User: Fold this.
Amino acid sequence: MENKTKHILKGMGLTIISAIFAILGIIVASTQNLIAGIFIVVASSLFWGYACLLSRIVEIRLKRTTN
Amino acid sequence: MPSLKNRRNTLKKNDKLIERFAFSFLYIFSIATFYLLWVAYINHDIAKLNLYLMFYLIYIILFYLIVNDLYNNYDFFKTSGNIEGTKLLEETHYFCADPVCSRCGGWYWGLVLSITITLGLKDSVISILNIYKVQMIYFIPIWTIIFLITTPFHGALNFLMKKETPNNNNKKLKLILGLISGLSMSFIAIGILSLIAK
Assistant:
């Protein structure tokens, strides 16, 4: 049960970090330079993508341990 | 279930997991941040310089943690003999930064390269377009069609070739397709930007 909450917190943290970087990118796009802001928004999707991958990894790991 | 903090072992030297996982994102972020740092340095804006440096350091540390975590999971799956999990991680492939990747043949690398070059030279591209009086009404749909042709073709190639083919003759074709689709994406962006500016 502890591991489950740990994984949930990890995924949530990754999503929030992704959102923070995306907001930074939007701020840069509106104040500094449009292209650099778009690049930062694109780069922020790394954390989002890893959160999606992590959910599948955890699913397989938990299925393994219950069997 | 063992702890997630177990250390990486010797498997990391032999496989190419790290290049397949999202290194292009790091390249894109580095390019954007270095540009912003350069602008802040020219304007003698120390506060902004420190802010961007801090964000860049945070990004690099988080990237390292993600890759480390990925290797921990991969080692766990390998040592426990979990075929499903090993397959999942070995077939993970998005935004790799390998120009001679056996899976995508450098498609993502070409995409990122041509996008960064074309958008970096945005002003000169727009001035060239203005010299030859390119009409944006036809310009955007044509490049959209080219983008649609070059992009799913890559997926179709992957599907037909059963993903991993060591003796792959179509690597250069895939790289060129990636370059063209990146070019078309950035041309679409430039067209929309110039339409907004009018």
About this structure: The radius of gyration of chain A is 16 Å. The mean pLDDT of chain A is 82. Residues 2-66 of chain A form one domain.
